[in-house]
Amino acid sequence: ITICFDSRQDIYAGVSIVDSLNAQGFNFGSRPKPLIKQQRSVLIFIGIALYESILNKAKPISEIITSTLEVTQRMFFEEVSEIFEKEIRDNKFVGFFKGLFKSGKLLAQRITSTDSLSKELNNRLKLVQKNTINECIDDLVIYLRSKIEEDENVNYGDFLIIFPFHTDKKTNTPIIEALHQSMAALEIPYTYIGTADYDKSYLPKPRYFDGKNISEEKDNRLTADLASNSVKIMTASNSKGYDRKYVFVLNFDDLEIDKPDNSFKPHALSYVILTRAVDQCVIYYKSQTTIIDKIISITDYIDTNKI
Predict the structure, then answer these.
(1) Which residue, 179, 283, 271, 273, is CA-closest to 231?
(2) Is the pTM higher than 0.85?
(3) Of 128, 227, 252, 283, which is least packed with CB atoms within 10 Å of its CB?
(4) Report for 4-8, 84-88, 110-114: range of highest mean pLDDT
């Protein structure tokens, strides 16, 4: 038996994949619960639709929405199948009935408690246009701080800030430096996770900011305290496998989808960006680019047709 795994995909789990295999063997259950929860959200729906619309530029939005509905329905039935398989595997005598009960409960929850995509859209996804990166960041920081002050159950550790590239394309400013100015002014603690390539002088070092002091490292992807009560900041590529309640996306319009190549796949990265948020994803952009036009077309179609 050969087991292959990509350590980068499990980088935020906090445990060794090999240790987990030794402890549990190969008899794993279904997908982790956070992913199952997201399968029924409007964010993953839009992520899949945007992915397909980038790959098939001439395909009408109506056809993309129809095919995406088919994909998400298939995902639901796969989830039900996994429940049955797990229950029967764990207890072959009553497993079938337990699987039937759990699947029925899941179906009932989906029918009774899940809003339509169009109703869920306004609560789960927000698109915000500003003129400059600094205006985007100022709005982001104010919104973040207000969330903290309004809800005592929300803390800094519930927030994630991601962006496609280290620097703002228009000004060539390192985004983390612009973020630091606004967050330091309000003494908001954050952890910037990533690597510093010293051959590229514009790349800032990964760091931890406690609201007053900064500590820096060359690479803190494996050493950063992900449980700390601080806002997590990273590139979209580094955010694979990691999610938070509230996700802010800066410079979404910097994704160029007209000229994808083998080294950069904007359809895949856009899907990652849209599926990091458990509760809400706020996307900031500065100009009306092709990818912004596509996501607005998708969300408008969902809202207009009450999907």
Answers:
(1) 179
(2) no
(3) 227
(4) 84-88
For CA atoms 59, 63, 68, 71, give the dihedral sign: negative
The predicted structure's pLDDT at residue 165:
92
Q: Do 306 and 118 touch, CB atoms closer than 8 A?
A: yes
* Residue 27 or 71, more confident: 71
Lowest mean pLDDT among 15-24, 214-223, 235-244: 15-24
Q: Per residue in 21-47, is it b (16+ CB within 10 Å) or e — as a string? A: eeeeeeeeebeeeeebebebbbbbbbb
Kindly report the average pLDDT of the chain as a whole number. Answer: 84
Backbone angles phi, psi at 261, to 5 degrees: -135, -175
Q: Residue 121 in contact with residue 307, Cβ under 8 Å?
A: no
Q: In this structure, is the dihedral angle defined by the CA atoms of residues 217, 192, 153 and 137, taken in order, positive or negative?
A: positive
Q: Which residue in the block uniquely carries the two structure tokens 């979209």?
A: 236
Q: Are 209 and 184 in contact (CB under 8 A)?
A: yes
Query: Is the pLDDT at 274 greater than 90, yes or no?
Result: yes
Token pair for residue 279?
């509760």
Q: How far is CA 265 from CA 11, 249, 262, in A?
A: 21, 18, 7
SS3 303: helix
